[in-house]
Amino acid sequence: MDKRPHIKPYLYAMLAGFGAISLSILLFFLIYRFRGLGDAVAKLAGILMPFIYGGAIAYALKPVCNFLERNLKKIVSPRFHRVVGPFAVTGSLLFGLLLVYALLLMIIPQLYNSILTLSATLPARLDALVNWLSGQYFADHTMIQNFLIEVYDALAESFGGWINNTLIPYMQDIVSGVGQSVWNAVIALKNLLIGLFVAAYLLASRRRFAQQAKILLYGVLPSRWSDLILEELAYADRMFGGFINGKLLDSAIIGLLCYVVCILVNFPSAMLVSAIVGITNVIPFFGPFIGAVPATLLILIEDPIKAIWFVLFILILQQLDGNVIGPKILGNTTGLSSFWVLFSILLFGGLWGFVGMIVGVPLFAVIYDVLRKLIIHGLRANGQEAMLIAYHDAFGDSEDPGSAPKAPQ
Q: How does this chain sit within the bilayer (predicted)?
């Protein structure tokens, strides 16, 4: 008999976490470590980029298309149901295009004006900020005043040298390479336009493709494995759809609330600051901190006192988001602990940048769920279900293995 029963409850969490980490690292090691494989993947992705765009657009608009189709069938005669599908696809695509157009129409002019005004007045505002600090807080401290002036002069000189030695030559390089930039933009636009047609076809034939994939799956694999794969695919769909769509809605609400308060309190660069706060809020865990720093600096340059009030407002806003708005929209979508959320953001963010920080949490949650089910199945097959019960009794939380469905024997 094992004389260390207290170790057993920790074994499940250790194996699931270690397995998920190992599988993630192994997958991307194979892709990025071997140059030939990485080049082949990059080339294939470049060729299939219109289908990647189309698949992403279709997946994002699928809930809208399903909603339109379901409600149109309720209000039209059954003899016209055959035209409901095309109308729903067209309506969902128009909805997506109009939404993007409205967002760009609202944000881009405001952002452009804010950036233009800031760039034109930045030197004078920095001078005013240094003078305000020196006269307001350090009037009796000559040494600190001299230090601030020396630091400011050094920064101004470095900034001027950076403009003359780095920025201007870089802009000249951009102008000289404008042909390649225009060509890249044309390629991206072409891929996006083809992607819209691909998205329309995918939305119109989504049920047919799903049934074809199901037939292929059951025709190649045994039924019990096909059931498991379909169950995991459904879980991945719920995970990605629920998390990403919920996070986008949550960030849109946070950005809107920030803009309203900035207008009411008369914070400088309200649209630019709100756009930064809303966009960076899409990133789990780190987003609020990433967005608060540049937004606070923008306000600090114009009005240091308002910058302090803005920091306090951001703290209140993020508490509201973390404790009220976020949980209401997202709930505990992923079932991951804070440690695994942090790990997945760092891992996939390091691999894929901004996109990786967004999709890393649901992707790691899917990998974690697969490993969890495999471990549970192995423990049950080896007659070690007592370990699951012990874990349930010790750690009855969101990662509770007792809530996992039984794997087929």
A: Multi-pass membrane protein
Task: Say how far apart CA 401 and CA 391 lie, in whole Å.
Answer: 8
Identify whether the C-beta of residue 337 lies closer than 8 Å to the C-beta of residue 16: no
In eight-state DSSP terms, residue 404 is S
Identify the pLDDT of residue 402: 40
Amino acid at 21: I
Q: Which residues contact 96 (CB under 8 A, 6 or more apart)?
A: 57, 60, 61, 64
Cα of 285 vs its chain's centroid, Å: 11
Model pTM greater than 0.85? no
Asked if residue 89 lies in contact with residue 65, where contact means CB atoms within 8 angstroms, the answer is yes
Measured CA distances, 19 to 25, 205, 357, 375 (Å)? 10, 37, 21, 9
Report residues of the chain scoring pLDDT below 70.
Answer: 1-38, 41, 110-111, 114-115, 117-183, 330-334, 396-409
- Alpha helices, H only, 34-166: 35-47, 49-75, 84-136, 142-162
Cα dihedral 321, 108, 106, 124 sign: positive
∠ Cα 129 135 141 (to 5°) = 120
Estimate to the nearest angstrom the gap between the alpha carbon of 56 and the chain centroid.
14
pLDDT attached to residue 312: 92
Give me the phi and psi of 210, to 5 degrees please: -65, -40
What confidence score (pLDDT) does residue 199 get? Answer: 92
DSSP string, 203-216: HHTHHHHHHHHHHH
Q: Report residue 384 as tokens.
A: 């070690």
Q: How far apart are CA 301 and CA 176, in angstroms?
A: 34
Q: Work out the burial of residue 3: count CB atoms within 10 Å of its CB; fewer than 13 is exposed, 13-18 middle, 19 or more buried.
A: exposed
